[in-house]
Amino acid sequence: MHQGIMKAWLESSHLNGANSTYVEEMYEAYQEDPESVSADWRAVFDNLPPVNGASSDVPEAAHSKIRDYFRSLATEGRHKGAARVSDPEVDAKQVKVLQLINAYRFRGHQNANLDPLELWKRDKVAELDPAFHGLTAEDMQREFNTGSFDHGGETMKLADLLNSLKATYCGSIGAEYMHITDTEEKRWIQHRLEPTLGKASYDQKVKHRILEGLNAAEGMEKYLGAKFPGAKRFSLEGGDTLVPMLREIIYRAGDAGTKEIVIGMAHRGRLNVLVNILGKRPAELFDEFAGKHHDNLGSGDVKYHQGFSSDFETPGGNVHLALAFNPSHLEIVNPVVMGSVRARQDRRGCTDGLQVMPITIHGDSAITGQGIVQETFNMSQTRAYKVGGSIRIVVNNQVGFTTSNHQDVRSTEYSTDIAKMVQAPIFHVNADDPEAVAFIAQLAVDFRNTFKRDILIDLVCYRRHGHNEADEPSATQPLMYSKIKKHPTTRKIYADNLINQQSISAEEVTAMVNDYRDALDKGDCVVKEWRPMTLHTVDWTPYLNREWDEVYDATVPLEHLKELASKISDVPEGFKLQSRVEKIYSDRKSMAAGEKLLDWGAAETLAYATILELRKRVRISGQDSGRGTFFHRHSVLHNQNDGTTYLPLRNVADKQGPFDINDSVLSEASVLAFEYGYATAEPEGLGIWEAQFGDFANCAQVVIDQFLSSGEQKWGRLCGLTMLLPHGYEGQGPEHSSARLERFLQLCANHNMQVCVPSTPAQVYHMLRRQVVRPMRRPLVVMSPKSLLRHPLAVSSLEELAEGTFQNVIAEVDSLDPTKVDRVVFCSGKVYYELLERRRKENIDNVAIIRIEQLYPFPHEELAKVLADYQHVKDFVWCQEEPQNQGAWYCSQHHFWTAIPKGAQLSYAGREASAAPACGYPELHTHQQESLIISALNLK
């Protein structure tokens, strides 16, 4: 702070003269912890002049020096006539008044009127009592400076100030924002709350709109309850204000220029949102309740998991709405929504988040109980996953599943306390005050758009029925549900208020109820703002109803491949590489010139280059993706002199697709869910999630089970996401060996995804290109190699890339006489090279080795062609590194039996069944590996 400004501020605040003791105490607190004092004081102390010539960053200074400095400012001001002569008693009181204001900003929410049922038993906050600060009844009529309190002018009578503070911070809104360290954000919130005392002033049009939303929310639930008694619908009743809240958010966002909103929510109120916000036809919903089924819709899903899309008209323009499909794992949809939003923003070229906004709706127990929420908060400001902030709404019905005692479901005062980890502002609001809810909804949109950060709305409400409509809540919550039975609905409360205000007549209220019910009877859309979709910018039509074996052309001429390979091996002049990286790039130049065969990293990178050249996006996320966990990729180069970076794949062509490669946060579930959401909103490019080790996918199992493997079958959602899962038994122990191939194969059905185990650089090149060039979008699961990245036999020529295609099955490569072969070994992955090297070493010529590179969908036709020369063989073996109860053996052997000739036998060569994926002792690992090689090759 400039010295002159600081001086004026001190004088106008009456903090000179008699208050030197207070200043000293404040300075002492600042020295111990700068965050313990207000931002104003912190700015003052941060800018104190050096003492005795010391550096200004020296934190310690004598208190007498500080006191003398403040006194000199005050004396100088008085000599110039800038300040009155202070009254010590008044000045001391003035300090206490400012402390009182601060207390309401910090803790007013703890005495706010938030619970519609008035069941919360909350202790009075002592700091909110003027007496706590030494202010007496005699002080109430005195005028005091109000500091930065933004209401009523620079001075107010203490009584008026106290009433204003109570109205602002202890009414229907409980504002938590003083945990934020950014002064601008705090001041912004104060300027929105304090001038209006935390209340909005709405005209009749907006009040009618709010009432219409409440009427729709209540009318929908009552209608379903009467038409389908006892059916599960996870009613919104008690939290009805969610509907007008969402409407106000959409209207406000439309005014600000938002074009798309993606919503994620769990069960509670979902049917209401589908019908009353997104405009799903009630007739369609009623058919679902009646159990009608369409054969072409796969397995389908329950009503309260369904998604929907539509356009919503606002005065600022139409807004495209998308409600994400959601399984029963309640909070896992949040990163999916964020990924979908990021994809839409990237496609629009939106870098500030304004054009596409996420809204996530949480339960009060779920938001604090499920770790994916913390993961998503942690991602919210990172480069790879930021979306310009999200609006998070907690439908806080004060009870989780069966418990209303928050001590059973969390360890914090509020369920929203988790948001403080990212310093998000939190607004608790009484759901029975719809205008307060609308006010905070609008504030939330403005804050998000201004600061590009998350904001939480804690909609404190209740649940009129049990967890579902078949539940009897009074069995466990007798007092709460006794109160609920007597409590009028929010619609009734608000309608009566409007009637008393003469904003609407009782007849109009009755007509609104009847009109809405008539609209439900007709079964047509009940959202007047609904419009046919025109704003959705992705066309999935080219990818619908595509088959696995559809012919496609993915060839790239050899000479052009050489040019691309050379281009992505170039490094700017003067850019100093680390020595090992320099060797890799030197080798890649030789590979581009045809002087060396391509290794894994070179072929993989070349695949990306060819995709980018098609102007398609390549997006890769993983914990070591830029470098590659096993030091093979190096798509992000680091200058050893100045730390700058260079990405060759961003310099493929003058006009190319975007290349995004991100070293992700140290999370699996949230990152994979984000990338799934991204891929469902961006079908044209290549999206990859790479695990640091394949078995880390365990932490993302919910995403794999509920979205990747079944999303198309349940919801008709296509997704072309690729998962690279390092897999291979290298003696690194149980947690660094297996990507749990068996789990993915168990999930395979209905051609829902691909599971591949490529064994050559050419194979990975064609596999990745196929995922983009082939017009089919389904997940690709890759058992990715570790030691093969640098294996001397795992190399390919440029010709194999230019002229070949992905081979689902690779036949015997050595020139064996098929008539001499009496054993055929099937295998996948790294073990192939160990079998090959041992066979060559032992000069075995009667055992053929066939690689199955795609385990699902199983390549029956290709394998039949390869086996044509071995119809006389009776001895077939499946060889794997994994234990017998894992890997492909149990899940795929029926395919092997189908493939081998009639009368032939199939046996197993591999590790014995084991509870652990692999052993941790190197000696035991080596022994097991040797045993399975001997068994497969029939060595004695």
Automatic annotation (TrEMBL):
Purpose of the protein: E1 component of the 2-oxoglutarate dehydrogenase (OGDH) complex which catalyzes the decarboxylation of 2-oxoglutarate, the first step in the conversion of 2-oxoglutarate to succinyl-CoA and CO(2).
EC number: 1.2.4.2
Pfam families listed in its UniProt record: 2-oxogl_dehyd_N, E1_dh, OxoGdeHyase_C, Transket_pyr
Cofactor(s) required, per the database record: thiamine diphosphate
Keywords assigned: Oxidoreductase, Thiamine pyrophosphate
GO molecular-function terms, A-Z: oxoglutarate dehydrogenase (succinyl-transferring) activity
SUPFAM superfamilies in the cross-refs: Thiamin diphosphate-binding fold (THDP-binding) (SSF52518)
Residue intervals passing through the bilayer: none
Domain Transketolase-like pyrimidine-binding: from-to ranges: 598-791
The organism of origin for this protein: Shewanella yunxiaonensis
Protein name: oxoglutarate dehydrogenase (succinyl-transferring)
